[in-house]
Amino acid sequence: MGEEKKVMFHEMELDDRILKAISQLGWPNPTLIQETAIPLLLEGKDVLMRARTGSGKTAAFTIPVIQKILNLKNTSTHQGIKALILSPSKELCGQITSVINDLTLKCSREVRCIDISQNGDMQIQKSLLADKPDIVVATPSRALAHLKSNSMRLKEDLSVLVVDEADLVFSFGYEAEIKELLGHLPKIYQAVLASATLSDDVLSLKKIVLRNPVTLKLEEPELAPSSQLQHYHLFAEEDDKAAILYALLKLNLIRGKSIIFVRTVDRCYKLKLYLEQFKISSCVLNSELPAAIRCLSVEQFNRGRYEIIVASDEKALEKPDGGLLGDEEFGKKRRQKSKRKKDKESGVSRGIDFQHVSNVINFDFPLDVTSYVHRAGRTARGNNQGSVLSFVAIKEKPLMDAVEDHLSKGFNGQQVLQKYEFALESVEGFRYRSRDAWRAVTRVAVREARLAELRRELLACRQLQGYFEENPTDHAALKRDKALHTVRLQPQLAHVPEYLLPAALRNEDTEADVDAAAPAPKKKKQAGNFGSAKRHKYQARQSDPLKSFQLKNLKKTPAADDT
Ligand code: AMP
Q: Which top class of enzyme applies to this chain (predicted)?
């Protein structure tokens, strides 16, 4: 590999206010796409960038947009909409807007942005647009509706157009709208297309939107390098997997937000109910859940309401809207002028970012290499640190060997999946508790939990509101069932008494429990690791719990340190 010099943010001639915001976001240096695209966009070039979600592409186009607006403001006091950013779904528009808000933290008065994709009164949006915000983020239909009704005019002032997830624009059936929308733009403006693939559709969009563009097809590695993403494995059979997970979580050896993958939807609930008994809360994500719940789970996870997501398949994460229709199929349906207009803008599909996932835990080993790569790709996004810990039962060993074979090719034959040594015998007490708790989650309990989820959805369903108003007894009956506890809770399980702790972690002076309810130490966003518990609860102890656990191969990542 060549020793190419990395361009840093401060070498890009960016405004100080942007640099400050970037540093506040904790981004130490640009990602590959940012490093390449930002200078080109600052030069004023049209750019077609192939970039996947997680590559940092949103900032790759928003940073130059903000810089350009600040430059324009230096020379003119005339207020106008200077940038239009189009994205195929409301959720993605929301995500882009939030990145812009973060990046304009220090210049929010100079650079104003509104997102008109969200369901809102057109009239209210009209009045917001009348203020001519500098940046408008929208789905193509929303933008076009406002252009047609004259509540937004771009002919005079627009200076940049961005189309994000350009390949989805076609599959969402926005093609005609984009073409019509171009007629409302000035003759000269800078344009950017960002797309995960360079399909024929994108290439035809490129022809109509871009002029003499630079095409960036960055060869990004399948997964982040080992300096950023560590892979561990641990041999364990069924009962022990549960006990180890419980011990790792309770002893705070797992830091930061985690996604735990299991094999089936039932196991999702089993694991959730198992953890619940120890007062470890998590939310479940699988492709059988209604779209609204899936999106809500992702949103709550991102907002930090949950630290743990238990997922049964990576497809549910790729498409939190469930991929009820695949992109292709969705596109076809749109082209046939389906009447289900609502779906068009709420299709989250690709692009939704699970933010700051520090750990991916394969409770069940994925069934093939692609699936491993997909799961692992959920962490170490942008330039963040991350770790993957896979529990491997004997029968899963061939699957792990296949993954090791595949990954090591990209690392010059070096071993990639490091052994995570965990002496379960030193936490024997955890094992007993765990066995009981695991068995307490019966099939009936799992079924009840799934039903409870559905019931919750029914109660929340807008279309049924009218029915419930007319039939209040049905509503009450459903509501009453909601309180059903599918597993008998044993409050004592929430605490880990001193005697359960391995010798190295015991505190001679106190009888204090490791309090389950106590939050894990505040981790930094990118603190992805399975680390030492000694820094917080066991701060004063001299013996290193890592040694007593024989977690020899763990590297202490600096990111885990409190700073
Ligand atoms: P995106 O590909 O735009 O969806 O970004 C993926 C994630 O990377 C987001 O959570 C960003 O906050 C994060 N990110 C973007 N740029 C950087 C950077 N230069 N350093 C660290 N994280 C970044």
A: hydrolase
Ramachandran assignment for 13, one of left (phi > 0), alpha (psi -120 to 50 degrees), beta (any other): left
262-266 own/partner pairs: CB under 8 Å, 24+ apart: 262/310, 262/311, 262/312, 262/363, 262/364, 263/312, 263/364, 263/367, 264/312, 265/312, 265/450, 266/443, 266/446, 266/450
Beta carbons within 10 angstroms of residue 416's beta carbon: 22
Residue 348 has pLDDT above 60, yes or no: no
Q: Interior CA angle at 351 toward 102 and 58, to 5°? A: 35
Q: Two tokens at 481?
A: 């069932």
Ligand 1 centroid to residue 102 C-alpha, Å: 12
Atom of ligand 1 nearest to the CA of 28: 20
The model's pTM = 0.60
- Give the model's pLDDT for residue 174: 83
Q: Whose structure tokens read 């001299």?
A: 542
Q: Please list, residue by residue across 489-517, b when 16 or more beta carbons sit within 10 angstroms of its beta carbon and e when fewer do.
A: eeeebbbbeeebbbebbeeeeeeeebeee
- Using the mean position of ligand 1's atoms as its centre, give its distance from the Cα of residue 282 in Å: 25
- By alpha-carbon position, which residue is closest to atom 10 of ligand 1? 355
Band (100; pLDDT cuts 50, 70, 90): very high
User: Average pLDDT in the 350-364 region?
Assistant: 80
Taking CA atoms only, the protein residue closest to ligand 1 atom 22 is: 382
Nearest-CA residue for ligand 1 atom 8 is 382
Domains and CATH numbers, the chain: 3-217 (3.40.50.300), 229-319+343-479 (3.40.50.300)
At 339, which amino acid appears?
K
Least confident residue range of 23-27, 66-70, 75-79, 257-261: 75-79
Q: If you search the block for the tokens 């656990």, which residue do you land on?
A: 549
pLDDT at 284: 85
Cβ of 387 below 6 Å from ligand 1 = no
Q: How far apart are CA 361 and CA 363, in angstroms?
A: 6
> Is the beta carbon of 59 within 6 A of some atom in ligand 1?
yes
What are 484's two structure tokens? 């059903």
Atom of ligand 1 nearest to the CA of 351: 4
Q: Is 98 in the pocket of ligand 1 (CB under 6 A)?
A: no
| Ligand 1 pocket residue status of 351, Cβ below 6 Å | no
pLDDT above 90 covers a percentage of the chain that reads: 43
Specify the amino acid at residue 2: G
Ligand 1 center to 382 CA (angstroms): 4
